[in-house]
Please model this.
Amino acid sequence: MDIQDITAIIADFVRTDDRNRIPDGGDYPIYDDPLVGVAAAGDPIYREYQKEGVIGAHHLLPADWLGTAESVITYFLPFSKPIVKSNETPGPPSDEWYLARHWGEIFNDALREHLRDFLIPSGYEAVSPVIDGRFESMYGSTSNWSERHTAYAAGLGSFCLSYSFITEKGCAGRYGSVVTDLPLTPTPRTAASLMENCIYDDDGTCGVCIKRCPAGAISPEKKDHGLCLQYLVEEILATYPPRHNNIFVGGCGKCQTGVPCARTNPRRNGISDT
Model:
């Protein structure tokens, strides 16, 4: 079994599973075809993530999730064009985006389970950290396993000014990962730095996400996670759940839509076709 086999398993699930739709929504999928990468479980970068100022000592290593870990499979699920387009207007998130974040993560959990449960009967141990009982989200903006950071380790892209993660299919999407003892050849890291794909970090000519953020949480220096969380609680969670059957969703997605990196890597592929 190799990365092509794993990619085919993930892509087939994305294309065929009925949960990749918003119930009673439009006739389009939540996610388009995925990107898939592999990091070596013993890659020294995971210890770098444990340093203060990167993630921190609370971030677990692949071997902490699975003692016999050999590989970390990571995938990016890009939101489909209609969902991204719906959220390009200024102000609060579109209803389509809000519901896609909810139903999309339910689908993503099903995909995490599907990949894990495919590997185990095939004779391999596998754990998906985010749906494992040991997973902890803490302090409002960090957890003991970062799927974006493991996407960087697997060569899927780089971070950007808004702390989103820009892949070759953009930053508007979600991530998943499975730690396994299946030995796989790691995919190469193409980004030379953590911010390689960000136009603003490169030459300061973009910064669209700064203007797009309704909370004013993004600046040229950093993203203020406190302001982002305050906006989420006071504006989004105060109004959206009552009109959507008490569905609670984190994030407004404005920094991931209506920006050059929404659906492509602008450093290589030009301006995004959002």
In short: The two ends are 35 Å apart (CA to CA). The chain has a mean pLDDT of 93.
